[in-house]
Design a protein that fits this description.
Layout: H1 2-19, H2 23-26, H3 28-48, H4 53-60, H5 64-67, H6 69-92, H7 94-113, H8 118-132, H9 135-146, H10 152-180, H11 185-188, H12 190-204, H13 209-221, H14 227-246, H15 256-278, H16 292-322, H17 327-351, H18 357-374, H19 384-410, H20 418-456, H21 464-477, H22 482-515
Helix pairs in contact: 3-9, 3-10, 3-12, 6-7, 6-8, 6-14, 6-20, 7-8, 7-9, 7-12, 9-10, 9-20, 10-16, 10-17, 10-19, 14-15, 16-17, 16-19, 16-20, 16-22, 17-19, 18-19, 18-22, 20-22, 21-22
């Protein structure tokens, strides 16, 4: 009898552990590393391809306007799946869906690497985006549920290291692989990684009891899939991503296709929001945005995505176009910032249980804003060390944003909603990244034209300084022809115009960091979690 009672007590204890998150709760760090690495693989693929675009153009003999579809196809389908991933996880089971995404991402990566022509590469990239769209939000949801309450900050720290560090080292990794192995290996490298992760996920990850119960109740109450809602969000987010990617190249609203697509995606998303808000079983649970903290978290995550990816896209362009850096050298400037994030994320994960999370967010916004405004002092003579430490300071601030924003955004939501909440907040960050890169590229092009027109006004035959400069250039290059000196002067004007345009971009981003400060007031006070140990 005593032995039976002991066995019953052990079974009861195991049941309680399972209810609180199952084996994932007991092996949190193992789960965290495996799941975060899957998310890291997908986020890295968003940025690693950019630096290989010229090689893809040359290898497949396509123009830049066509080659950009390698990026657009992925971001378009990825943006569509992100908000739907919570609904798909509920329908299929979170673990099953997560493993399916890893397997499909590996297979489509293999197909991309073996693509015989450009058309098949674009098709496989679109399929890769569909597969990758479920990795980020489900990884975050798995980590959120696997972590004990006192380790919630560390869960977000591990996830943050994956999704913030990956864009920072993407240009470096992509440049090195392309230069030393070949552009096809930026896709093929995902295959062995996926094969390694899959059995680990199978062994370590389990759907928690609360999720399983909520899933069972939802499947029992729902009748059939909302195909109209699915069509609306596919049309809306797909066209929005195309507009953001192609807008600057096609002249924005001077282009009839861009105007048509803009009107269409706005109407599609407006109808989608109205429809899903009223449904009892929506494919995207927008009613979660009624929570002020979650709504503020989404706005801040949108801004974080825009400013992080916007600055990450601008800095390599600045270094390569004006300072003469190679892709690898430009990546080496960004990599120390990624290492700073890696080092600080665990520290912030510990601080989140001891300090008011709002204080951390304010600190992060101020540090990153200050560092971004320091970038307005960059010029064509800025040295490597200055570029590195300025970016490192900006990255240090970013490390203080990701974890507190997620912690406060999820703090008042029920655990059963973690998959839906993760889908929405990851969608906000990804769309913010697309918007940030699009706005940065537009401002760069428009402000370069503006500054060039302003500088050219001062170059006239009546300006004695111009004649003095041209004479000095002729003497320096040893060429008596005045056209050579004029050509040199034109190149100087173009470089200065572009430099001023980059400065305008950095200034806007720095101001936006500080403009986000009032949003912190929408969060409730972040109370430190108490460790039960």
């Amino acid at each position: 009898m005593a032995a039976s009672a002991l066995r019953l007590r052990k079974m009861g204890a195991l049941t309680r552990v399972k209810d609180s998150g199952g084996p994932a709760a007991q092996n949190f760090w193992a789960v965290a590393l495996v799941v975060a690495f899957a998310a890291f693989m997908e986020v890295l693929d968003l940025t690693i391809v950019n630096v290989s675009l010229l090689h893809i153009m040359g290898s497949m003999a396509v123009s830049q306007n066509k080659a950009i579809w390698v990026l657009t196809a992925y971001t378009m389908t990825n943006a569509i799946i992100l908000p739907l991933s919570g609904w798909l996880a509920t329908r299929l089971g979170r673990k099953r869906y997560f493993m399916g995404c890893i397997a499909a991402f590996s297979v489509t990566s293999l197909l991309c690497g073996l693509s015989p022509n450009f058309s098949t590469l674009v098709i496989f990239r679109a399929l890769q985006g569909i597969a990758g769209g479920g990795l980020q939000p489900n990884a975050q949801a798995i980590l959120t549920d696997a972590a004990p309450a006192a380790k919630r900050g560390m869960a977000f720290a591990v996830y943050g290291m994956a999704v913030v560090f990956a864009p920072a080292i993407g240009p470096t990794v992509g440049g090195w692989i392309t230069d030393h192995i070949g552009w096809r290996w930026i896709f093929l490298i995902n295959v062995p990684i996926g094969l390694l992760i899959l059995p680990l996920v199978q062994a370590l990850v389990h759907d928690p009891e609360s999720f399983a119960q909520a899933r069972g109740a939802q499947l029992a109450s729902s009748r059939r899939a909302d195909f109209v809602g699915f069509a609306l969000i596919t049309l809306g987010l797909g066209l929005m991503q195309v507009v953001l990617d192609r807008g600057q190249q096609d002249g924005w609203f001077a282009s009839l296709p861009i105007v048509t697509m803009t009107i269409t995606w706005i109407l599609a998303l407006a109808f989608f929001v109205v429809r899903e808000w009223r449904k009892t079983d929506p494919i995207v649970d927008l009613r979660l945005l009624r929570d002020p903290g979650f709504a503020a978290g989404n706005v801040l995550m949108f801004m974080l995505g825009a400013l992080l990816l916007g600055s990450t896209a601008l800095l390599p362009l600045f270094m390569q176009s004006l300072l003469g850096y190679t892709a690898v050298d430009a990546g080496l400037v960004l990599s120390p910032g990624g290492l700073v994030i890696m080092a600080l994320m665990p520290v912030v994960g510990q601080l989140i249980s001891r300090l008011d999370a709002r204080v951390l967010i304010v600190s992060g916004l101020c540090v990153s804003g200050f560092a971004t405004l320091l970038m307005t002092h960059f010029d064509t003579h800025t040295g490597f060390a200055t570029l590195v430490w300025t970016r490192a300071i900006q990255a240090a601030g970013l490390a203080f944003l990701f974890i507190p924003i997620n912690t406060l955004a999820f703090s008042s939501l029920p655990a059963a909603k973690s998959s839906n909440a993760s889908a929405i907040i990851n969608m906000s960050r990804n769309i913010g990244g697309s918007v940030g890169m699009s706005i940065a590229a537009t401002i760069l092009a428009r402000r370069a034209q503006y500054h060039q027109s302003q500088l050219v006004q001062r170059i006239t035959p009546y300006n004695a300084d111009v004649h003095t400069y041209l004479a000095a250039v002729q003497n320096a290059i040893g060429h008596p022809a005045p056209m050579a000196a004029l050509a040199h002067l034109y190149m100087v004007v173009v470089r200065q115009s572009e430099t001023l345009a980059y400065i305008d971009d950095f200034e806007l981003m720095g101001i936006l960091f500080f403009a986000c400060l009032p949003l912190v007031l929408l969060f409730r006070r972040g109370r430190p979690a108490v460790d039960s140990k």
